[in-house]
Amino acid sequence: MPAGDSFFITTPIFYVNDVPHIGHAYTEVASDVLARWHRQRGDDTWLLTGTDEHGQKILRTATSHDVSPKEWADKLVEESWKPLLETVNIANDDFIRTTDARHETGVQLFLQKLYDDGFIYQGEFEGFYCVGCEEYKQPSDLVDGTGPFEGQQVCAIHSKPVEVLKESNYFFRMSDFEQPLLDLYASQPDFVQPASVRNEIVQFVKQGLRDLSISRASFDWGIKVPWDESHVVYVWFDALLNYVTATGYGVDQEEFDRRWPAVHIVGKDIARFHAVIWPAMLLAAGLPVPKRVFGHGWLLVGGEKMSKSKLTGIAPQQITDTFGVDAFRYYFMRAITFGQDGNFSWEDISARYQAELANGFGNLASRITAMVGRYFDGTVPIAGDLQPADLAIRETELRVTREADGAIERFAINEALAVIWELVDALNGYITEQEPWVLAKSEAQRERLATVLSTSLRGLGTLAVLLSPFIPEAAQKLWQSIGQGELTSQPIDRAAEWSSAPTVTPLAAGLFPRIEQPEAGAA
Ligand code: MSP
Fold it and tell me: Does 13 contact ligand 1 (Cβ within 6 A)?
């Protein structure tokens, strides 16, 4: 993709019934890394995140705490969800709440249009509803309950009983979109990714789509249906629209055209909503469908999907307090193949912190900047004739930049990091072989020493640029120590072309200090 294109990326908007855990932080960090990378390529980037505040789940939680749902949502947004963005250093461009007036207006406009165009009708519905999922379930989605729910049918995701609901609702003619959706998946094979999620979605739609109940009359915590105020809009129909109401739908056509369509990053548990219901809604409204829907895997703890309701939840701050924000970001992006499930353990993060961040990268940065300080008084040395080993480093910088950019384009975030690490390893190997501390002992080797340190410094600067979307704080510290200013102004797809400043200030403290007592076993 040439730099300068529009890149609008979204996270799911999170339910405010509970506080964030590392699964939510994982989605945020992945989206933020992609956004930071594109922003630094010069793309017209927009990262949207926010909160999903309507529906029965939030209503019940608020009621059980003796507050109104709006008071509950306000409290959770301010005390938990916005602080999450600080905790894991998210550079979002907007934060939408489904209780924002801009959102409520947009949802009503959209719904009215679908109603006027004949895509909505009134009907009767009876089915099993899971409040945890905020979704009607098919009998095949249910399993036998255990423990307190022995003898009952429970939701396979939440392990809690479903409720039988019988309602007279408004319905969206989703069944009209079965063939158009299948055509979409065929003509845009990368619309849903990864392939495992795509296959599941295609199979699901091939089995036939039913019309979707999109309103509720049994409670009133939601956006009112514009032509019948005794109904509120179904929470998923409301929530999905955040992606367009945040970018000017119906009120600011210029902004809307500039941003939409988006790339959606979601957990695979909610890929179906984004890859089936959402494009059907957009097709009905005559709007472009998303560019891509990427369903990432689950974070598992002890082999089980981590969730608060199953008591396996870990707060992001438990990890950042011990290892720091950059290490949190690095670990989850590196250790888990984006698109697959991955197990979290304190032992694993601790081992990677030590081996890869502290020893592999941090140490390299400290050694090189210290040697420039010691042998050249902090003045950047001028390289002499380049030997094959020096040229090999240069080539690695260029190749790694190209390959990492390609990996990000494919959402292969962990591959991008792995390829960047080839430069870390190459530089460590180069220093070991060239032994600048030996060269420094002989005046006759002064020019060779200058070449080796200049080559190392160049590689280090390239690493700072390439790593900035992943570990923004450490990368900026390193960039400053090599005499540079604002890191994000160096285009990332030209990472190896940065021009060096005259002086280097050795890194006083390491980028990743030794951690004596990681909280092993705390999970
Ligand atoms: N509110 C809906 C989304 C509406 S989007 C229009 C919702 N919210 S949620 O709070 O339950 O968060 C869902 C997202 O959090 C998942 O899609 C996923 O991205 C992330 N995760 C929640 N638990 C997770 C794991 N254990 N592992 C990885 N991601 C997880 O669904």
Answer: yes
Q: pLDDT tens for residues 277-334?
A: 999 999 999 999 999 999 999 999 888 887 766 566 789 999 999 999 999 999 999 9
Quick check: CB of 14 below 6 Å from ligand 1?
A: yes
For ligand 1, is residue 306 a contact (CB within 6 Å)? yes
The set of long-range contacts for 200-203, using a CB threshold of 8 Å and a minimum separation of 24, is 200/271, 200/272, 201/271, 201/272, 201/275, 201/276
Pocket test for ligand 1, best of 52, 236, 237 (most atoms within 8 A of CB): 52
- Residue type present at position 312: T
With a cut of 70, list the residues of the chain below it in pLDDT.
1-3, 308-312, 517-523
Going by alpha carbons, the residue nearest to atom 12 of ligand 1 is 14
What distance in angstroms lies between residue 14's CA and the mean position of ligand 1's atoms? 6
0.85 cut: is pTM over it?
Answer: yes
**Which among 432, 414, 296, 297 is positioned nearest to 356, based on CA atoms?**
414
The answer, yes or no, to whether any atom of ligand 1 lies below 6 A from the CB of 335, is no
pLDDT tens-digit readout, 197-207: 999 999 999 99
User: What is residue 266's DSSP assignment?
Assistant: E
Cα 122-128-134 angle, rounded to 5 deg: 80
Nearest to 472 by CA among 70, 83, 91: 91
Residues facing 394 on adjacent strands? none
Shortest CA distance to 221 belongs to which of 209, 213, 233, 212? 233
Domains of the chain: residue spans and CATH: 6-314 (3.40.50.620), 345-497 (1.10.730.10)
Residue 312 has what pLDDT?
Answer: 67
- Tokens 């002890």 label which residue? 302
